[in-house]
Amino acid sequence: MPWVQLQIPADPDTAEQLEDLLMEMGSDAVSMEDAADQPLYEPDPGTTPLWSQTVVTGLFQSDRDTEQLCADLRDAWHQQTQQELPEIAVTLVEDKDWERAWMDDFQPIKFGERLWIVPSWHKAPDPAAANLMLDPGLAFGTGTHPTTALCLEWLDGQDVAGKQVTDYGCGSGILGLAALLLGAEHVIGVDTDPQALEASRENARRNEVADQRLDLYLPGDDPDTRADIMLANILAQPLIGLAPRLAELTRPGGDLVLSGILFNQAREVMEAYEPWFIMDEPEQKEDWIRLTGRRKTG
Predict the structure, then answer these.
(1) Are residues 58 and 111 in the same domain?
(2) Alpha carbons 143 and 149: distance in angstroms, whole number
(3) Do residues 80 and 17 lie in contact, with contact meaning Cβ atoms separated by under 8 Å?
(4) Where located (predicted)?
(5) CA neighbours within 13 Å on the CB side: how many for 93?
(6) Is 191 annotated as a binding residue?
């Protein structure tokens, strides 16, 4: 069955109100897209930022009277806002197996020499490798973003056997689970989002490491266990604020791995960690940076 797609331009002040209206009018799905290729890097805590130019899209069943639907939308919008609704772009979208198409976009990815990230519905290309089976539907990190890839490539190049690892801002658990599959003894994962911790637990069960080797915590509940390897793939400003805590949780001589940092933010983040760590030169992938260092022993 084909669908009727309505696309309406909006700004941050009206996008969510327009989303609600489309749902009230019977839309089966509503999405928002950036209309001007504007990146959103670091939202303030507790906020849900939107692009300055947003397109709100609603999908309706094809048996709807499109002219009447658009007229009803304009009338309802005017009643709510006393403003005219921007021009509505109407297109007919052919039906397809959206879930199948989405799954086809995720293929196994190799990082370095030993590590593969494998979507849960695929077979591992190299059964002898460290294969991390991951469900991208759980979000929070799938290995496709340069920041995650930088950290995975670093892990693949290290001897992590027997190491204590902390993954601060663990998301899907991808970094900590990769460390376990590469031989780490124990991983502590920390994240502010309980849903992220649940994603980590589910991925741990899928990879058969949901035992005494992985513990997950909200910030403030995590123990003061010192890590041999401290991983934090977050964003620059949170990383700067976390510098004293991450230093406290890294043993002398331990490794620090930071990402989620844009190229022009690297120096500021390095300076925040230099009181405790000997920092290396940044490694870059696209616009993103990985910082590494070793905890000072004195």
Answers:
(1) no
(2) 5
(3) yes
(4) Cytoplasm
(5) 16
(6) yes
pLDDT of residue 99: 45
Amino acid residing at 11: D
148 marked as binding residue? yes
Q: Phi-psi region for residue 26, left (φ > 0), alpha (ψ -120 to 50) or beta?
A: left
Per-residue HEC secondary structure of 209-253 comes to CCCCCEEEECCCCCCCCCEEEEEEECCHHHHHHHHHHHHHCEEEE
Is 245 contained in some domain?
Answer: yes
The CA-CA-CA angle for residues 47, 48, 52, to 5°, reads 115
**Side by side, which strands form the sheet with 3-10?**
29-34, 54-61, 3-10, 89-93
The reply to whether 87 and 117 lie within a common domain is no
Total domains, the chain: 2
Q: What is the dihedral of CA 35, 40, 45, 49, to 10 degrees?
A: -10
Give SS3 for 259: strand
Contact 184, 132 (CB under 8 A): no
Q: Is 207 annotated as a binding residue?
A: no
In angstroms, the CA 54 to CA 12 distance is: 7
**How much of the chain exceeds pLDDT 90, in percent?**
46
Helix (H) or strand (E) holding 279: strand 277-279
Residue 253 annotated in ligand binding: no
Structural domain including 63 reads 3-95
Give the confidence band of 102 by pLDDT, cuts at 50, 70, 90. very low
Cβ 222 vs Cβ 193: under 8 Å: no
Q: What is the mean pLDDT of residues 270-285?
A: 96
Q: What is the pLDDT of residues 234-260, one digit of tens each?
A: 889 999 999 999 999 999 999 999 998
Nearest CA to 31 among 2, 51, 45, 1?
51
Pairing of strands 89-93, 115-119: unpaired
